[in-house]
Each structure stands twice: as C-alpha cells, then as structure tokens.
Specification:
heterodimer; A: mainly alpha; MetI-like fold; globular; B: alpha/beta; Rossmann fold; six-stranded mixed β-sheet
C-alpha cells in the first residue's frame, strides 16, 4: 500500500534544515570579523586601481638579459624547493615511523599499550610544533642567523614541511589496507620490516603523489620566502614590484604556472608508474 | 611446536567487550609435528581459534600454552619472538598488489632476518632458490618474478601458502587454504601442504570447508560448532552421523555446496586523497 503524504516526507529533512541554519548563524560573525565586503571590489575607484595594476602586466617582459636572469633564479627556486623537501623527508621519515599506529605491535591484540601510546602522542606533538610555525617565521629566524640567501629558505621549508609530511604520511599509512603489514607483524616481523614489505608497497603511489604535491607547494612557498630575503624568484618578484615593473612580474607568474603544471604532470606519471 | 588449550574461551576480532564468546570451553592438546584439520559450519569460530593459536589474539579466559610457555604473560619482545616461530596464513592472502611474488614469498623469512638483510633482499632477493622451490610445490614457479596484482585469486592464495614453506616456523596455521582454488588444484595443494609439513616435522593446523579433503589428508579432525568442540577424533572414526550433527541446519556446506563467501568484514577501501 502506498504511504500517505505525511509518511512519505523524508524524516532526515528537519535535521538537515537545522544544521544548515546553524551553519549560517555561525558564519555570520566570521564574516563580520573578517570585514567581508566583496562589493567594494566593484566600486569605480577600486576598478580603476585594479585595472591599472593588471594593465601594467602587459606586455610581459621578454628582454634577453631579463630572461637569462629569470632562468637562473628559476633554477635557484627549484633548487630551494627540492633541497627543502629532501631535508623535510629526512626529518619526516623517522617521525612518521614513530607516529603511525599502523606499525604498533601492541595494538595487534586490541588496544595499544600505554607506553607506546604516550610515545606516539609525543611524536605527534613534535610534528604539530614543527608545522604550526609558518615557514615564513622560520625564514625570518634563519635570515638573522645564516644571513640573506637561499640557505634560510631551505631550512625554513625543511622544518615546516617536515612536520606536514610526517603527519600526513602517518595518516596515509593508517588509512591504507593494513592486512599485509599486520600479517607480517603478527608473524614476528619487526616494525621496519613490516614497513618495507607491507606498508610501503601498499601505499607507495599515495605517498609519492603527496610528496610531489608538497614539492609544488614548496615552490610557491619559496616565492613567499624570497620576499623576506631568502633568494630565488620571490626576491626578484619583490624588487620588480617595488620598481613597478609589471611586465617582469607577469613573466614570473607565467614561470610559476609552468612549474606547477610540470609538478602536476610529474605526479600523474609517478602515480601511473606506481599505482 | 606443541600446544595445549585448557578451558579456553575467546571473542571475535571485532566483538564488543560484552559480546558472546566466539569460542567457549575449548580443551585441546596438539603434539609436536601433528597435522589436524578444523571443520565446522560458518561462524563456528574456526578463524578465531587459529588467531588464538597464532598468539594474535589473547584468550578471554582459560589457558593457552605454546611449548610449555604462556605467551600472554611473556614480555612483548619475547611474544614477538614466539610469533616469529609460527606462521598464520590468512584466508585472504595478505599481499600488497605492487609487490613481486618473489618478495611476497620471501617475506616469510623476515622473522629470521636482520633489517639489513631485509632491505638488501628488496634490491636483490637473497634466497631465490628457496622461493622458487616453495612456489614449485604449489605449481607456481613460473610466476617467480610476476607482480602480485597480475595473479589470479587462486594463484595469490598459493603464494600465501608458499610463504609458510620458507618461514622459519615450527607451527603452520592455515585458514581456509582452498577457498579460491578449483577442486582438482585444491586436492593437490592440500596434499602438498600436508606432505611438506610432515617432511619437516612441522605442526600443521588448517581450517577447511571441504570435509572430504580434511578426512582424506589429515589424521586428526576437530569438529567445531558455535564455538564449542563437538568432536576431536582420528579421521577414520569420524562417521557420517557425527558430520550430520556437526552441520545440522548447514547441510549445504557439508554436501560440498559452494563455500560461503568470506563473511568477515572487509577492510575499508583505501581513502583516496587528492590534496591536503
């Protein structure tokens, strides 16, 4: 027998409406706090300023001296990002192995034992500490210690990204299929052996893709770090902006687009090879 | 390896604390080098029994002794060393899809290897002849350097069995080793498994859905139903009446009907992460 009209109404409907209303109510003070007034963008004064700024990008600069300098600085930016992410990997790998639940021997038979649990929480705390300090702040610290130049950028990326990589690696290892590594642990293998023979082959594609994505982020980051004197394209962009050389800025932005596209293709190719 | 269970009960892997026990009041003695098959309808607690024997899951009550020691009172390091002297072969072969067969088989050697040897073996497998010989027992030696995800389900299951052959284990605990094999291949595989265990003097405990295979190849049969031991007899003394009682209301399983699909909860599919 078909239900009557009242019984046909979706019972989850009221709850959804309530949640949506609560979300809107919570969002309102946030918009007020951030002085969110997007219509200001469309006022004639703003449009004129925006138009002048964007207009200064054309035509992009393609002078041979400038391009030569651009190539050198691009190479330096890629070097900063690569060296930074490599160091971050060295920081993250041991912390990942210590933090991930997937390699807990005591958790095989139920709840994790208290001591290993405390140790894992401690390592997680360390990872939080590393990544909660923005790389910009680390860079400002290192610029004072080791002076202006790429070294401080590399160190800043290594620390913050070490914290991010460690956290996300640990979570990737926990969210994958655990059967292979658990069976190894259960048959008496050590943690590192279970990692090399179970977890790593199981999660290699995901780990690689995340690492390449972080490398892409590091390229963007190194630009921001350049603004505080950590070298690379960012430093050049900073000086071009100060000299109102919009064409140069535009060319640099095009280089960023190319680098990000490169990272995207690289990641796709690696996933195909490992997946 | 010799094992004794005394009035042992245990809960299912995913059970809550107050859930009914999956095994109750089991008392079994298994002598060094014995081969025995555990039969019984689905949900009888066969897999849980293997997990308890493998020291993978602590018993809820009662006593488990392996070679005279009580594993769950050992320090964790000693327990892990004890686990290295036995091997549990799960029904679903625990093989990462990208791994090569030779690596997957040699992973059975890990408990006896140092970390250095384990890493070296990833660059160049350290004991290819052993892996090849183990695969040959299960008619798979042509797959030595194949990737696991290029194998069929039955081939993967036999790779899992080959892993037991290379392991430094004195106790083989094999869960439904024939569930993915066709009947002819299943007969040859179980015969090979029992023959190898006997030749090495290894203790073998296998759970089986194929009652005829169990009776044909194993000298001792345990009948398990609803977590209780129904009989523990030499194969020759297992009568059709006993089997009928063991499988009452599950006759389709006794009559060689299709083994029910693995009803344990599947591991959640890996979460695909785009970016963070």
């Amino acid at each position: 027998m078909p239900l009557n009209a009242a019984a046909r109404r979706d019972p989850a409907w009221l709850g959804r409406l309530g949640l949506a209303a609560a979300g809107a109510v919570l969002l309102w003070p946030l918009l007020v706090a951030t002085e969110f007034k997007p219509w200001l963008l469309l006022e004639p004064d703003s449009l004129r300023v925006t138009g002048r700024f964007v207009g200064s990008f054309f035509p992009p600069a393609f002078g041979s001296d400038f391009l030569w300098m651009l190539a050198r600085e691009t190479w330096r930016t890629v070097a900063i990002a690569t060296a930074g992410v490599t160091l971050a990997l060295l920081v993250a790998l041991p912390l990942t192995l210590a933090a991930t639940r997937a390699l807990s021997v005591s958790a095989l038979a139920g709840a994790m034992a208290p001591l290993p649990y405390a140790a894992r929480q401690l390592v997680r705390g360390l990872l939080i500490g590393l990544r909660s300090m923005p790389e910009l702040v680390w860079a400002l610290v290192f610029v004072r210690v080791v002076g202006l130049g790429p070294t401080s950028g590399v160190l800043a990326i290594a620390l913050t990204y070490g914290g991010m990589l460690g956290k996300v690696y640990a979570e990737i290892l926990e969210s994958g299929d655990a059967q292979a590594s658990q069976t190894l642990l259960r048959n008496g293998a050590t943690r590192m052996q279970a990692f090399a023979y179970g977890l790593l082959p199981q999660n290699a594609a995901e780990l690689t893709s995340y690492t390449v994505y972080r490398w892409e982020c590091a390229i963007r980051s190194s630009v921001v770090l350049g603004f505080v004197g950590a070298g690379g394209l960012g430093q050049q962009m900073d000086s071009s902006m100060k000299m109102f050389a919009g064409g140069e800025v535009a060319t640099m932005l095009l280089v960023f687009v190319a680098l990000v596209a490169l990272a995207d293709r690289l990641s796709a190719a690696l996933r195909r090879a490992l997946g | 390896m010799k094992i004794s269970l005394l009035d042992l009960s245990a809960r299912h892997a995913t059970a809550r604390r107050d859930a009914a026990a999956a095994l109750t009041g089991l008392s079994i003695d298994i002598a060094e080098g014995e081969q025995l098959a555990v039969i019984g309808p689905s949900g009888a607690g066969k897999t849980t029994l293997l997990e308890v024997l493998a020291c993978a899951r602590p018993p809820a009550s009662g006593r488990l002794a392996v070679d005279g020691a009580t594993p769950w009172s050992l320090p964790r390091r000693a327990l892990q060393a004890l686990r290295g002297r036995l091997i549990l072969v799960p029904q679903v072969p625990p093989l990462p899809p990208r791994q090569r067969v030779v690596t997957a088989v040699l992973a059975g050697r890990l408990p006896g290897w140092s970390l250095w040897t384990a890493l070296r073996s990833l660059f160049y497998p350290v004991d290819i002849p052993a892996a090849d010989a183990a695969l040959d027992v299960f008619e798979l030696s042509d797959k030595l350097f194949e990737r696991v995800d290029r194998l069929s389900g039955g081939e993967r299951q036999r790779v899992g069995l080959a892993r037991a052959l290379v392991a430094p284990a004195r106790l083989w605990l094999v869960d439904e080793p024939l569930s993915a094999l066709d009947p002819a291949r299943a007969q040859r595989a179980i015969a090979a498994l029992v023959r190898e265990a006997r030749a090495r003097g290894v203790t073998l405990v296998a759970t089986l859905h194929q009652v005829d295979a169990a009776l044909a190849h194993f000298p001792r049969i345990l009948g398990l139903r609803e977590g209780r031991l129904v009989f523990d007899l030499p194969a020759a003394e297992v009568t059709p009446e006993l089997l009928a009682r063991l499988y009452a209301q599950h006759e389709d399983e006794l009559l060689g009907g299709p083994a029910p699909a693995d009803d344990r909860p599947r591991p959640a599919p890996p979460v695909v992460m785009q970016c963070r």
